[in-house]
Design goal:
135 residues, alpha/beta, TIM Barrel, 4-stranded parallel beta sheet, 38% helix
């Protein structure tokens, strides 16, 4: 892809980092794969779940892939996005401030509440010049 788009465009790769299935992708696999993706020209890695199909959902809490994204981030040296169950502005902010990811993906929470971003701004306040979110 990098050869086709050149250096001007950002190449992002969504990495299913935990299939939760026997023989599937594990968090350790994701940590090992990430540097190879960077070597191949990927600029940003987006961590999410794997190909669970219609298996029962077992992950709990908000940001259930944040620990995996933290390990991938440490291994690859490029910005990392994490998705997965991030519902509240406080959870998103915590993930960023704890350096578990550089960006968070908010999906279903925005579908449920189109004013999510406005509420997040009100809840978290205006970023200051030293705020992690604007570096």
């Amino acid at each position: 892809v990098r050869e086709e788009v050149g250096p001007e465009l950002t190449v992002m790769y969504r990495l299913g980092a935990d299939d939760g299935l026997p023989g599937g992708i594990t968090p350790e696999d994701a940590r090992e794969i990430a540097p190879r993706l960077v070597d191949a020209g990927v600029d940003v890695i987006d961590i999410s779940g794997g190909l669970r199909g219609y298996q029962p959902f077992e992950w709990k809490g908000e940001g259930f892939f944040a620990d995996i994204s933290s390990r991938v981030k440490a291994a690859c040296g490029v910005p990392v996005i994490v998705t997965g169950g991030i519902k509240s502005p406080a959870a998103a902010d915590s993930i960023i401030r704890e350096s578990k990811a550089d960006l968070v993906g908010i999906g279903r929470a925005l579908l449920k509440d189109p004013d999510w971003a406005v509420k997040a701004r009100l809840e978290l306040g205006e970023p200051g010049t030293d705020d992690v979110a604007i570096r």
